[in-house]
Amino acid sequence: MAALMLLLGLMVVNIGITGAESVGVCYGMMGNNLPPASEVIGLYKANNIQSLRLYDPNQAALEALRGSNIEVMLGVPNSDLQSLATNPGNAHSWVQRNVLNFWPSVKFKYIAVGNEVNPVGGSSWLAQYVLPAIQNVYQAIRAQGLHDKIKVSTAVDTTLIGVSYPPSKGSFRNDVRQYLDPIIGYLVYANAPLFANVYPYFSYKGNPRDISLPYALFTSQSVQMWDNGRGYQNLFDAMMDSLYAALDSTRIGHVEVVLSESGWPSDGDFGASYDNARTYLSNLIRHVPGGTPMRSGKAIETYLFAMFDENQKNPELEKHFGVFYPNKQKKYNFNFGGERDWNIADEYNGTLALKSDM
């Protein structure tokens, strides 16, 4: 039995090596102690991080990205949505200034128009501008013949999902459908993916009685839930499949999903620790190449959140999501490219230790 467990562990290791190249990292800048953009892009290249999410068109970062061959998801900040939605000329100017002026030496892949806008709650006033802004940016991209190379979408969070259990019954909240359905229709028309920020950490933190830590960290040793013949051994798969099911249940058309953020804090609140963050992130990197039970074998394009601990974010928890420290030292001992630089025995023993805590 021990030999079989070790063999299974080695199989997981090999999956991680094969798929790690598909994992990018979000470059947030809300810190007053972060390195200059030129050094940050150098850090991406030195660690074989081949894709990057940028939340706004920071000119220093875009200049540093020239010739880097790093694929870029460029954000339109929520503060720009109204301007770009109400005036197509503003959208064309935005695209000219922040995309065309750098293309093709900067390898833009996506434009994320808005982040986590919700038609119910604090950002509800912005919801009316998201789809028109997307459409105006898309038309500006299309006018240059780049709409097949640069896909335009928006990033949502999982609070838009009303039913998530079981995953096959996933559906969006009734009070967001009027907002979301036209966006999904656009995505089908433009053959663009939906960007989704998915955090098992917050689900675990909000309900530790019903969600075990091993289930949230990918370290459960057995299936925890069966749904229509599909076995769920981790919370991430359940969350992703509930989103896939919610998209499918609209019957608007097929939409791919890009995991535009996922991470685990190393400090600052319940369940936030260095060991938990390292375990979640390393297991996520290994897991996403294989897809989910509902879309098995289909790799999930993934962006880890975030590059650095950002000391100007609040609350305290938000300061501790970095995979690097501001001094450019790795916080965790995993790689983002083809090599593996943590000790197999240590990782294997760590998994067994977690099993004993279940």
TrEMBL record:
<keyword id="KW-0732">Signal</keyword>
<dbReference type="GO" id="GO:0042973">
    <property type="term" value="F:glucan endo-1,3-beta-D-glucosidase activity"/>
</dbReference>
<keyword id="KW-0326">Glycosidase</keyword>
<protein>
    <recommendedName>
        <fullName>glucan endo-1,3-beta-D-glucosidase</fullName>
        <ecNumber>3.2.1.39</ecNumber>
    </recommendedName>
</protein>
<dbReference type="Pfam" id="PF00332">
    <property type="entry name" value="Glyco_hydro_17"/>
</dbReference>
<dbReference type="InterPro" id="IPR017853">
    <property type="entry name" value="GH"/>
</dbReference>
<dbReference type="InterPro" id="IPR000490">
    <property type="entry name" value="Glyco_hydro_17"/>
</dbReference>
<feature type="signal peptide">
    <location>
        <begin position="1"/>
        <end position="20"/>
    </location>
</feature>
<dbReference type="GO" id="GO:0005975">
    <property type="term" value="P:carbohydrate metabolic process"/>
</dbReference>
<comment type="similarity">
    <text>Belongs to the glycosyl hydrolase 17 family.</text>
</comment>
<dbReference type="InterPro" id="IPR044965">
    <property type="entry name" value="Glyco_hydro_17_plant"/>
</dbReference>
<keyword id="KW-0378">Hydrolase</keyword>
